[in-house]
């Protein structure tokens, strides 16, 4: 009898211990889940408050989650600090080799989800001919004497005293093609085949001394109907840098000169359509897009992004 009582007591004790352990586990899980729900609810309330703002104010506010505390805070886009921009890019592109493509797809999906078509450009060139006049033979040899003589000769030719000894040289002859939007076009050719000349002609940066004939259009518009230098950029194989500027300063200067950033009107239309469709965007992508569309912040954010994907975020050295 005593052994039976002892067995029942031990069984009851083990059952109580198991029940207590289960209760402790359930309480712990419930506490953590409740904490997670509270954070989600708090973020949803902050986002709802932003959605109630007028369009101008809504484009200046965002939800940024702290990397250390994991707390979502409302931030003013025009007052993002260095650490906040660093945390934002760390969340979007933690590993450049793996996350860059994912991030770009997020940007693309957000715009296409509400039916906004991003403007694209199709470049066509028809019967393109480019010719130059150049010295041939010994006259083309690079020397100081030849250089001085050619200058004097050019002056006398302009006065119709001497006959022009330059020979016509055809660089491109009857070249036609199409550069489709949203596609990567590869241009291959042997050295001195006219690749650089073709690219300069398409970008509107061809040397005025060259004779150009044919037709180059951007979405059907001739080159004289707009400023092609604001639409296309040609990057030479010879880099030109200011030696006294750091890597960050050089990229920031370039971004400011080129007007880096998204169009503010496009983001306003995107926000309006998302509000009508009751769509909540990714908070990090939302802050990034608002930052690059905000005047005064676009160059800083774009510079940080380029430094991040190139692995140069810790570089403060000169070129």
UniProtKB/TrEMBL annotation:
Q: Where is the composition biased (Low complexity)?
A: 8-20
Locate the ABC transporter domain: which residues? 172-274
Q: One MF term from GO for this chain?
A: ATP hydrolysis activity
Q: Which Gene3D superfamilies match?
A: P-loop containing nucleotide triphosphate hydrolases
Q: Which parts of the sequence are annotated with region: Disordered? A: 1-20
User: What is the recorded name of this protein?
Assistant: ABC transporter domain-containing protein
Q: Which organism is it from?
A: Populus deltoides
């Amino acid at each position: 009898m005593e052994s039976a009582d002892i067995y029942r007591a031990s069984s009851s004790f083990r059952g109580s211990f198991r029940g207590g352990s289960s209760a402790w586990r359930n309480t712990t899980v419930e506490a953590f889940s409740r904490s997670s729900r509270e954070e989600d609810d708090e973020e949803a309330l902050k986002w709802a408050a932003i959605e109630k703002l007028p369009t101008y104010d809504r484009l200046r506010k965002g939800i940024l989650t702290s990397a250390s505390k994991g707390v979502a805070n409302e931030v003013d886009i025009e007052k993002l600090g260095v650490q906040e921009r660093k945390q934002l890019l760390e969340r979007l592109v933690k590993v450049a080799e793996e996350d860059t493509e994912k991030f770009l797809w997020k940007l693309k999906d957000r715009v296409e989800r509400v039916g906004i078509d991003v403007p694209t450009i199709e470049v066509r060139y028809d019967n393109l001919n480019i010719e130059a006049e150049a010295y041939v033979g010994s006259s083309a040899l690079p020397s100081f004497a030849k250089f001085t003589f050619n200058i004097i000769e050019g002056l006398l030719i302009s006065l119709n005293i001497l006959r022009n000894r330059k020979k016509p040289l055809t660089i491109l002859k009857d070249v036609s093609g199409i550069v489709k939007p949203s596609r990567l076009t590869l241009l291959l050719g042997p050295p001195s085949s006219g690749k650089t000349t073709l690219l300069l002609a398409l970008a509107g940066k061809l040397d005025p001394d060259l004779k150009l004939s044919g037709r180059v259009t951007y979405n059907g518009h001739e080159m004289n109907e707009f400023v092609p230098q604001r639409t296309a950029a040609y990057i030479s194989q010879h880099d030109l840098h200011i030696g006294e500027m750091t890597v960050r300063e050089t990229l920031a200067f370039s971004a400011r000169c080129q007007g880096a950033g998204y169009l503010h009107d496009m983001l306003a239309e995107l926000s309006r359509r998302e509000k009508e469709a009751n769509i909540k965007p990714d908070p990090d992508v939302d802050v990034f897009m608002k930052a690059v569309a905000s005047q005064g912040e676009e160059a800083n954010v774009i510079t940080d992004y380029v430094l991040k994907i190139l692995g140069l975020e810790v570089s403060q050295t000169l070129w």
